[in-house]
Amino acid sequence: MLKENSREKRNFKALIETDGIGRVEDRLNVIDVFLNTEDHITLDDFMSLLNGKGYNYDQEFVKLCLNRWVELGFAQKEVFEGQPPRYEHRHLGKHHDHLICTKCGMIIEFQSDEMEQLQERIAAKAGFYILQHKMEIYGLCSRCAAARSDLMPLTSTKTGEEVYIRDVVGGGNAKSRLISMGFSPGDRLEIINNDGEGRLIVGRGDSRLALGRGMAENIIVSPDRQGMERGLKGHPRRRRRLWGLF
Question: What is the average pLDDT across 54-75?
Answer without folding.
Answer: 92
